[in-house]
Automatic annotation (TrEMBL):
Domain Sugar 3,4-ketoisomerase QdtA cupin stretches: 5-131
InterPro entries: QdtA_cupin_dom (IPR008894), RmlC-like_jellyroll (IPR014710), RmlC_Cupin_sf (IPR011051)
One of the Pfam families matching this protein, by short name: FdtA
Record's protein name: Sugar 3,4-ketoisomerase
Signal peptide: none
Entry superkingdom: Bacteria
Amino acid sequence: IIESSELMTVNELGDERGLLTVIEEMKTIPFEIKRVFYIYGTKMGVRRGFHAHYKTRQALICVSGSCKVYLDNTHRKTDVLLDSPTKVLILEPNDWHEMYDFSEDAVLLVLSSHLYNAEDYIRDYDKFLEVYGS
Ligand code: TYD
């Protein structure tokens, strides 16, 4: 597991009551947030994602539990461990991503720069190489 440059650690605000982490668009997150979704209740052994995008940028935060993210931008393949609500992984459109090793309590929060559009997905790996490979 390598810590990639897209992985940031954000501040945790804590007091005697507990913890709080804040994320703001154009500050922590380098894009305007148009959509939020979260992946949870993932069955053991499941691997999901298997796509890149044309335009969409995303920020992944495992707000509970842990999971791993495999990234491939055609130049570099990395595995990133998201095991803290303070870790924010920024994905660029050309980051082919696969999420795996979800803990039972994992809640993966995704902040997205675009509304859902099936046409913005590249789900075929050969197509991905054709679009983004140099
Ligand atoms: P899918 O893209 O298969 O998830 P993953 O890439 O994490 O494996 O999404 C599962 C289903 O949810 C699929 O039918 C598309 C739908 N979906 C939406 O309708 N809107 C969304 O914003 C997302 C992320 C998925």
